[in-house]
Give the backbone structure.
Amino acid sequence: MPEVAAPEQLPVPQARAGDPAAWDALFRRYQLPLYVYVFELVRHEQTSLDLVQETFIAAVKHLGGLREDRKFGSWLFGIAHQKCLQHWRKRTEVLCNEVPEPPDEFEDSPDDLLIRREQEQEFMNLIDQLPLPQRSVLLLHFIEDFSLEEISRITETQLGTVKSRLHFAKRSLRKLLEAKNENPA
Amino acid sequence: MKTPREILLVQHRAAGPKLDAIRQSVMNKLNNQETKEQSVPSVFVTSLLSCLKTGWQELFFPTRRLWTGMAAIWIFILMINFAQRDEVNSVTGQTVRSSGPVMSLQAQQRWMNELFADRTRPPEADRPRNFSPKPRTQAVESTVV
């Protein structure tokens, strides 16, 4: 299990100075979470690898545009998200915008949903069944525990929409899991 | 029990070696870019240094005594030149200081020029007079008187 480094520990200033070792450390830290996010959206291994590579190259090229070093993670995922959108545009597949209703209460922790070992594969299948916008928000929430504001910035959607999507995604995931528990066949 | 994050990352752990390869390729590109950026000035400095070394070895070193002698001669010439310049300065200082008699000589010369200029002028009788015709009556009166 790769450890999640605190944002303050990330060598972003050194990377800004062009230190290759710093870049290596940053890529090493984010390569798997980024790949998971991209793969769960595009569902193609080679395309996901290509998009991760493009994301890394774009990050090296545009690091000057990052204002706050501590937001490196969300910034990198934002690039990856844009790469996915470009990929979908090429395939004329569009992220549909459902009409959201912001929930009254919101569970903010990604760990409030714990999955048993025998449910792991089911969980992956259930994530695949979610609509793309909900899946995207849920993955960002699960993988890096990004805040709603960060997810809003990454996906370039309104905060209320993000909140709504995450709420409905979690609710539907929980329902599906419960249904599977009730009918294990 | 596992968190969703753990499940997601474990599910895709098999992609690790491929991701490492991608990271390596990006790092190679980054390093190549840096070496390219560094290479332009470094090549210039290296070529400049090699030119200087060649010049030293082929031009100066074999005839170093000759060059040293030439340099000594030039230094000697420059010293003489500076010394002479100092002398000229002192002389001009003297001329400035003795400018009083010179000025009087110049004034005398100017006076002489004016004098000669007056002499070269035609005399009063030879000068053309401005003739303004008068009425005849007045002219007669003047002749009678």
About this structure: Chain B has a mean pLDDT of 76. The interface with chain A takes residues 1-13, 15-16, 18-20, 22-23, 25-27, 29-31, 34 of chain B (CB under 8 Å).
